[in-house]
Design a protein that fits this description.
The complex is a heterotrimer of chains A (about 290), B (about 250) and C (about 300). Chain A has about 290 residues and is mainly alpha-helical. Chain A has one domain: ABC transporter involved in vitamin B12 uptake, BtuC (Orthogonal Bundle). Chain A is built from ten helices and two strands, in the order αααααββααααα. Chain A starts with a helix and ends with a helix. Chain B has about 250 residues and is α/β, with parallel strands linked by helices. In chain B, the strands form three sheets. Chain B has a six-stranded mixed β-sheet with strand order 5-6-7-3-8-9, sandwiched between helices. Chain B has a three-stranded antiparallel β-sheet with strand order 2-1-4, with helices on one face. Chain B has a two-stranded antiparallel sheet with strand order 10-11. Chain B is built from nine helices and eleven strands. Chain B is globular and about 50 Å long. Chain C has a single domain, classed as ABC transporter involved in vitamin B12 uptake, BtuC. Helix content of chain C is about 85%, strand content about 0%. In chain C, helix 2 runs antiparallel to helix 5 and helix 2 packs antiparallel against helix 10. Chain C is globular and about 85 Å long. The N and C termini of chain C lie far apart (about 70 Å). The chains are: A mainly alpha (about 290), B alpha/beta (about 250), C mainly alpha (about 300). Chains in contact: A-B, A-C, B-C.
Chain lengths: ~290, ~250, ~300
């Protein structure tokens, strides 16, 4: 497979993985929690490195998963103590991020982590960082990691689709029906953390946040059912990475950044279309309202 | 056996006791109204049965056992403001949510389930709305969808938080008809209510609540002017002083 | 112990960060009370494309041009967020997320465009975004001080109006106040406070300086005026301590240490603040439970 195809494939995998899980965050009004977690996983990665002294992906996954869950837990804890969700997200993620940056700057000589790189990410290098098993070249490592997380997420989503949907719409009903709402919450947070850290290495934190929120938000404007919303969101994610790669190629700019911009454009088009449709609908119904 | 028994239940938010030593036994098969002034703790009363508020003391029994064990037997109809009506789903799907327990994991939404859900919608006068997006419903229609969902749950006990608030006359009638029907099936329905005018018409059992249970029992015994004045304190204007059927406005 | 105060370079840094802490703490109060604290996160991220565009237009890394670019971009970002919420069924948090990520992505695109096409000299620009307190010059501190003074003066002048629209927008409208005008002014203040801080502590940590001191102050008081003063004090103290620890004791980046100091202040407030603190609340709840149990038992004895 060519270099370009690997990059587009990686981008699309991020789009599908984050796009699906992002829908669940949006309907639970927790979109910004994903922004928070995408920053705090830095702390998880740093801690994992300091403890294991290795840059292996598996330690990073575990470290990021733990810190991601901790972020969600602390936000919930502050919320239960009467601090509004937005403020508690802001407090928790900035503090943990500050701790991460602080640790990086203390152990700067040992840690080969470049914060700029973590934030901006460079998908350009993905095709060269290959996974080899028994001497066989299996393709880029990032593709395997993203693929694995995507499979895990999909399986969980299929098994727990109904409980996730019910507990998002009406948590009290869900409790009355015997669904463990707390378990579902942390299950989702686990999926979010996994998706973020898997995507993170290859595309950086901005594109992760874009991929988590923008496709879902676009799909939310277009669809009436959760299942179709998830499917549309995944497709918007793929479209965004293809168009984004084209933009990056034409203007010779950052691929991850261009994919964000492409998703932004897709969102803007859908947003304007729904505005126009709403206007037309109101106009065509204005006459009827006068009669009644 | 009583449907619900509360013993010495007290509930506090922060340092304020909202409910004080609630002792009440609600018999099965009744339409129970929970009535009291604003801030009397009516919603908290319902929530203490559902075990979702911090209880300072006391014990709740549902059909003789704890809520944790009997949770399956309680259907809850929340105030319609408590959920996000922009959620991407349609009317039929909301009703099907009520049947979550009956569905086997790998056989979702069988034809039977959908038929049951449709018949529940028909009972609340919402047939023909199955495919409607939920944010296109009026307030009364939202309330009826919630009731249909509760019907689909098919529980012996129902708790409803202000189902008559902000609904149109047609919906109010539909709800009343439904309550009667539930009673005929031997279900116990507990309704938080704030319109004193309709109390004696709708309910056959009554709880007068103002932080504590002041009076509880069959409506004809409990719903007297004296008891109501005691419950509401001074904030009550009496229009028609007819002891057997007081009709009142509260401010 | 205090000989470090002699170093003129350090004095400037210390002065700059402290003023920044006070200003952002005070202005942040309104963002937190309006439950829009994360808008500050979006504004901070939106500064990147603003700075880049300003550089592309004027081809100069003079701070004042970059600041103007950042303010304009930040202001457009807040406008977009509100427009999306008003004209679709998307909620505010999603809208913030969309604007934040797309603006920042656009910024990264511009950054790479500049480094590829404009003499490869973007180093100062990403420093602007990720923060570099140690390099604060006396000139930077002068700009920070002047802008802060203007922001705080406006805050004091329009205190009553801001209070009204924050607490009860509809009532404010009924009084004949122009909600939009006052809200826009408030947003401009928030954007201004964020923009002057970004080059010192960086995008993400600037969000912390807007949110954490007010959230801590809120735990101590029920009065807005007291909250403003407390938030300013907390922000100032955290900046002082943070700068001291980072530049002298630890020799690490300043921004994160300042934010960690703020986090510590918040954590202590959460535990020990009167009335809203965890310790006090638990104590009251226990006491209530115990006295209530006692009453119940005595009552039962009486019945027997």
């Amino acid at each position: 497979m060519s270099y370009e195809m690997w990059i587009i494939l990686t981008g699309s995998l991020v789009g599908v993985t984050c796009g699906t899980i992002g829908c669940l965050l949006i309907i639970r009004k927790m979109a910004m929690l994903s922004d928070g977690i995408s920053h705090t996983v830095l702390l998880g990665i740093v801690l994992a490195y300091l403890i294991s002294q290795s840059l292996s992906s598996i330690y990073m996954l575990i470290g990021a998963l733990i810190i991601g869950m901790l972020t969600a837990f602390l936000v919930q804890f502050l919320y239960n103590r009467g601090i509004h969700t937005d403020a508690s997200i802001g407090i928790v993620f900035t503090s943990l991020f500050a701790l991460g940056v602080f640790l990086v700057s203390i152990y700067a000589r040992q840690v080969h982590l470049d914060i700029d790189h973590v934030l901006m990410g460079e998908i350009t290098f993905v095709p060269w960082n290959r996974l080899t098993l028994f001497g066989v070249d299996l393709g880029p490592q990032a593709v395997w990691m993203l693929g694995t997380v995507l499979v895990i997420n999909t399986v969980i989503l299929i098994i727990f689709y109904e409980p996730i949907k019910i507990s998002s719409f009406d948590p009290v009903l869900a409790t009355a029906l015997g669904i463990n709402v707390v378990f579902i919450h942390y299950l989702l947070m686990g999926m979010v953390s996994l998706s973020i850290v898997a995507s993170f290495e290859s595309v950086g934190s901005i594109l992760v946040v874009t991929m988590l929120i923008v496709p879902g938000a676009t799909a939310y404007l277009m669809t009436k059912r959760l299942s179709t919303m998830i499917a549309v969101s995944a497709m918007v994610g793929i479209l965004g990475s293809v168009v984004g790669y084209a933009i990056a190629y034409w203007f010779d700019v950052s691929i991850a950044g261009a994919m964000s911009v492409a998703l932004g454009l897709i969102f803007a088009i859908v947003f304007i279309l729904q505005l126009i449709i709403k206007k037309m609908y109101q106009r065509s119904h204005r006459g009827k309202i006068h009669v009644t | 056996m009583n449907a619900i028994e509360l013993q010495d239940v007290s509930v506090a938010y922060q340092k304020q006791l909202v409910l004080r030593d609630i002792n009440v036994n609600i018999p099965t098969g009744k339409l129970v109204g929970v009535v009291g002034p604003n801030g009397a703790g009516k919603s908290t009363f319902i929530k203490s049965i559902l075990d979702i508020v911090p209880r300072v003391s006391g014990d709740v029994k549902i059909l003789g056992d704890s809520y944790r064990k009997q949770r399956q037997k309680v259907g809850y109809v929340p105030q319609k403001e408590e959920v996000d009506w922009d959620f991407p789903t349609n009317v039929l799907d909301v009703v099907l949510m009520g049947m979550y327990r009956k569905q086997k994991r790998w056989h979702r939404n069988s034809k039977d389930d959908i038929d049951t859900a449709k018949s529940c919608l028909k009972k609340v006068g919402m047939d023909g709305y199955e495919k409607r997006q939920i944010n296109e419903l009026s307030g009364g229609q939202q309330q009826r969808v919630f009731l249909a969902r509760a019907l689909a749950q098919d529980s012996p006990i129902y708790l409803m938080d202000e189902p008559f608030t902000g609904v149109d006359a047609a919906t109010e009638k539909a709800i009343v008809k439904l309550l009667e029907e539930m009673k005929k099936q031997g279900k116990t329905v507990i309704v938080v209510h704030h319109d004193l005018q309709t109390v004696s018409e709708y309910f056959d059992w009554l709880i007068l609540l103002n932080q504590k249970v002041l009076h509880a029992g069959p409506t004809e015994k409990v719903f007297t002017l004296e008891n109501i004045q005691q419950t509401y304190g001074g904030s009550l204007q009496v229009l028609n002083t007819n002891q057997s059927n007081p009709s009142v406005l509260h401010s | 112990m205090f000989e470090w105060l002699q170093d003129p370079n350090l004095q400037w840094v210390l002065l700059g960060t402290t003023i920044l802490g006070i200003t952002s703490g005070m202005i942040g109060c309104f963002a937190v009370l309006k439950r829009q604290s994360l808008i500050s996160d979006a504004v901070a991220h939106a500064a990147l494309p603003g700075v880049c565009l300003a550089f592309i237009v004027v081809r100069d890394k003079e701070l004042i041009y970059l600041l103007i670019g950042a303010v304009i971009a930040g202001y457009i970002a807040t406008y977009c967020i509100q427009y999306i919420v008003q004209h679709s069924k998307l909620k505010e948090d999603t809208s913030i997320g969309v604007v934040l990520s797309v603006f920042f992505g656009f910024g990264v695109v511009l950054l790479t465009y500049i480094s590829n096409n404009l003499a490869g000299n973007q180093s100062g620009l990403d420093e602007f975004v990720f923060g570099q307190a140690a390099s604060l010059s006396s000139q930077d501190v002068q700009i920070i001080s002047i802008v802060s003074l203007v922001l705080v003066t406006v805050l004091v002048l329009f205190y009553k109006e801001f209070k009204l629209i924050t607490f009860d927008p509809n009532f404010a409208k009924a009084l004949g106040l122009s909600y939009n005008k006052i809200n826009n002014l408030l947003m401009l203040l928030i954007v201004g406070a964020i923009v002057i801080g970004i080059q010192t502590v960086g995008v993400v940590l600037m969000t912390a300086m807007i949110i954490i001191p007010p959230a801590a102050a809120r735990l101590w008081t029920e009065k807005l005026s007291v909250m403003l003063l407390l938030a300013g004090t907390f922000g100032g103290i955290a900046s002082l301590l943070g700068t001291y620890f980072s530049t002298l004791a630890l020799r690490v980046a300043t921004g994160p240490v300042i934010v960690l100091c703020e986090a510590a202040i918040f954590f202590l407030s959460l535990l020990f603040a009167p009335k809203r603190g965890i310790v006090y609340k638990n104590w009251v709840f226990r006491k209530l439970r115990r006295s209530h149990k006692n009453q119940q038992t005595t009552r039962k004895h009486k019945v027997i």
